[in-house]
Amino acid sequence: DFAPNGTAGEGTATFSGLSIAEAPAEGVVLRFALDFPAGVAAPWAASTAFNVSVGPAVRLGLRREPGAAEGGLAFRAQPVVEVQDAGGNRVDGDNSTTVTAALVVDAAAEGNATLSGAGVASALTMVRGSVSFRDLAIDVRGVGYVIRFTAVAGAAGRPPPPPRGRWS
């Protein structure tokens, strides 16, 4: 449900900024209705059906964020990073971008922590626009940790910017 405001004049309504974030989708129909007082049937018009496809890669996103953990033990939920279009849809044609994970410790963090697991010392390669990290763990209990995911473009071209998040 989306309620944009359009401008009307001489029997024509014009809408700007309409977008559909979920892709792919087939047979999408837009329905436009006039705003009438309660109890009055509002006339409406429908577009012809059209398909929505995934757009070009514009960013890295986290499909699954790291879950809680205890110092030295792997995160209960391991992160999954994917290449996404502007609508947050996975761009599944990427099989060459590589991604690494690194721990960034801000001034408020406690101790000298280290991140370990697959994708830390060596990069993991995207498969269908997604990469699943394994056995990621932080060895020291604390708060204020940030994991930075960095992509290096493969044959497909320029990598999208990284996601950033904070977990404690």
Just give the CATH class of the largest domain: Mainly Beta
Radius of gyration: 22 Å
Count of DSSP H/I helices: 0
Q: Tell me what portion of residues adopts beta-strand conformation.
A: 35-45%
Q: Helices and strands: which structural class?
A: mainly beta
What are the low-pLDDT stretches, counting only 5+ consecutive residues below 50?
164-168
The structural domain count equals 2
Number of distinct beta strands: 15
Structure commentary:
By secondary structure, the chain is mostly beta strands. It folds into two domains: 7-52, no CATH class; 59-167, Immunoglobulin-like. The chain is 0% helix and 38% strand. The two termini are 35 Å apart.
Quick structural overview:
The chain has 168 residues and is mostly beta strands. Helix content is 0%, strand content 38%. It has strands at 7-9, 12-14, 25-28, 31-33, 44-46, 50-52, 59-64, 80-84, 98-105, 115-118, 124-125, 130-132, 134-138, 145-152, 164-167.
Write the layout of secondary structure elements.
Blueprint: E1 7-9, E2 12-14, E3 25-28, E4 31-33, E5 44-46, E6 50-52, E7 59-64, E8 80-84, E9 98-105, E10 115-118, E11 124-125, E12 130-132, E13 134-138, E14 145-152, E15 164-167
Antiparallel strand pairs: 1-2, 3-6, 4-5, 7-8, 8-12, 9-11, 9-14, 10-13, 14-15
Which key features would you list for this structure?
disordered C terminus, 168 residues, mainly beta, Immunoglobulin-like, elongated, 2 domains
